[in-house]
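User: Hello, beginner here. Can you help me understand these amino acid letters and fold codes? It all follows right here:
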Amino acid sequence: MKLRPDFHESWDAVDAKFDQFIASIPERREQLRELMASTGGPELDGTPASLQLLNDWSIEFGLSDQDDGMDWWPLWLYRMTPEEQAQKRTIPVPDKVYRLWELTGIYFADMCLAQDPSLQWVCWRGSHRIDIKNARFILDQGLLHEPLDPLTLGNVGVIRTISQRELRPDLAHPNPNQLYDWFSRWVNQRHELYETKSRSWQAAPTGRRANKRIGRHPGDFGQNHLP
């Protein structure tokens, strides 16, 4: 059964993007720190409480008219054409909000890695060819059907709020506690998950070996880049 690499043209292409993403993580950390400092945001100290501070600031900055002074697009995220946006009848969302999504997700990932260094950044290979998580840049926690997806969690609802606020005002509101709530729930539940579910890990972050799962931790892929 051949897996489908989501919207990417091939697995080689998405694996190359994954490698670029991993190499960019130290720069993204610095960009978040500088952006928060320049916009009057709080200083993040790596504690669970800092996730709530980040959540609050992300909503405030994301919905503001302030620019982030950057020009890049998340490698893991599909970029709709103007024609596709028109078909979906959504209000265009500034590129800065998508960059903010990645910056916030990386900080969330760092919090999880500090809590459990055995997590691994991988370019996900699911158990089915149309697994919704296929080709996502994700943290493998040794559970075939439950990888940890910090980049998705980094979206605290600002995109939905902007794109839907005129069409669906009932849905157009951010998630005020998403980062702290998700992290706290994961910390409290992860040991039970590990003890009650069968464990296996991707044998490699990318390439052909990534299609194979093994019943022992594969060792450090050297991808985590924690300071």
